[in-house]
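As agreed, record copied across for absentees:
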Amino acid sequence: MDVRELAVEGALEFTPRVFPDDRGEFLSGYQEADFRAATGRTLFTVRQASHSRSRSGVLRGVHYTATPPGCEKYVTCPRGRALDVVVDLRVGSPTFGRWDSVELGPDRYRAVYLPVGVGHLFLALEDDTVVSYLLSQEYVPHNELALSPFDPALALPVPEASRTLLSARDRDAPSLAEARSAGLLPDYRECRRAGSGGR
């Protein structure tokens, strides 16, 4: 697999080698040796696998999990196309407030790894876009938080609100500054301790 470090510290893009033949294609979307070479460890213990299917123009995020417990993610898009965005929300991180993006889809079969405390957003670029997640924690509603994807301080690469479909929760989510003022953002050191990379 090819591995690329993203602009958010600890976040990675993985691009597997694809083997085509007259029957179709074969690939391995996760390989422990490559993940270990990039991170120094194996992937987290998977406690939940989730999928979403979205129409073109659906925007989901910016979502993150309160720390503790925190949550690591390994994200792929086996159908359709999605612009996947990672945002560093960890107060004290060397890349706090920075973001990076990766286009996901079945043409390259890329995956994105998000460490604890990194926010996640995606924009569906076509109908029937399926995004799949491996998660280090099970979903607990009161631990799941959101930030506004339209916060000008973040300047994320998303269309204006009138050109997207999003939930009321995401539409009404606070800005980065509001979440920080309210003590809702994760602490970088605590994220490092909570994640597999901190053990």
Q: What stands out?
A: The two ends are 25 Å apart (CA to CA). The mean pLDDT is 96. The CA atoms of residues 42 and 181 lie 35 Å apart. The longest helix spans residues 32-39.
